[in-house]
Amino acid sequence: MGALFRHYWLPALLAEELPDNDCPPVRVKLLSERLIAFRDSDGRTGLIDEFCAHRGVSLWFGRNEEGGLRCPYHGWKYDITGQCIEVPSEPPDSRFCQKIKLANYPLVRIGDILWTYMGDKAKTPPTPEWEFALVPPEQSYTSKRWQECNWLQAMEGGIDSSHVSWLHSGALKSDPLFRGAKGNVYNQRDLMPFFEVTDADGGLFIGARRNAEGGQYYWRITPWVMPNFTMVPPRGDHPVHGHFWVPIDDENCWTWSFDYHPVRTLTGAERRAMIDGYGVHVKYVPGTYRPLANKDNDYLMDRDAQKRGDTYSGVEGIAIQDASLQESMGPIADRTKENLVATDNGIIMARHRLRRALQRLQETGETPPGVDPKHHRVRSAAVVLPADKSYIDACREDLTVRPGVKQTSV
Ligand code: FES
Ligand SMILES: [Fe+2]
Predict the structure, then answer these.
(1) Helix (H) or strand (E) holding 143
(2) Residue nearest to atom 1 of ligand 1 (CA)
(3) How many whole angstroms separate alpha carbon 270 and alpha carbon 275?
(4) How far away, in angstroms, is 77 Cα from ligand 1 center?
């Protein structure tokens, strides 16, 4: 799966992590590779091997100055492409440093994110075109949090629309970024959603159908784009949110959460709520991207709140409700012990698609779905439809990015 991931542009850092030229370098671990991100004196950004080519010191200790990162041990210096540009102990005319180059990956800013591509340089795909990253900055907000489990079981939570009526039932009533939408009523009234999954070029559309009034159906449609992108169906005029799950290694991932409105500026109250950890975002251990409620403190479980029903599980906040349960499955969930039911259809289909893409990649080298930026131009939707309408025929346009047109939502 690591080989598959190396075909995509992946979120690597928040732009805020490299705020200034010559700012401190940042440790980044992605796909089990330990790297250093830095921003040089000219504002160029790069991602290079964490360890100095001389005797392996971590360049996190380096001095970021005068167009490069200098190892503090013996002064070897690297530019943002990983090229060694100075070995002070060698005679200047030896050209020794030209032969030294560290592993290196590009780091490109789009929206609030610095993206990297860790695959074959000759096959670098066009940069991503996700709508949330392309709208004006005042319409969008992105955060990330460290999650202590394999990326796939976290991602599976993102395409499992059936848990919302249970785990997040308290939050539907109270969370400022969720409450008040008509759709919440349908969500809470019908606890037996019917799932209809449709193949898409980049992945899947996962439709969850619940009963509405007058024999109509309320549909929540989640796009999943290979390998790790989802968008949650919208609620009312609230900003729309979604996620990426990016492997740090087999047992840890970064959960990226974005919130945006396709046609309007986020209100001050909405932005405040996101920064304060509501909706899909979290409160942090200060100075880190680790959630304040985490494995070490039992996610601040509140049994009284559980009993009263303020929160269904006793854990506060939508993101931590998800993380706590996904991490509780163990670092890598054991699928041999599962008993899947009809509402797990999205998960089953996604596993099929991932497996098929990986097989084709290994056998024929076929570029996997989701690499082509046209696969990025999807939206989630929430609609009420007459019982005889197929959601995929009725909602083709609603499920496609239409600049200047607002999201389809109930
Ligand atoms: S280990 Fe980095 S310069 Fe010697
Ligand atoms: Fe959830």
Answers:
(1) strand 140-147
(2) 55
(3) 9
(4) 9
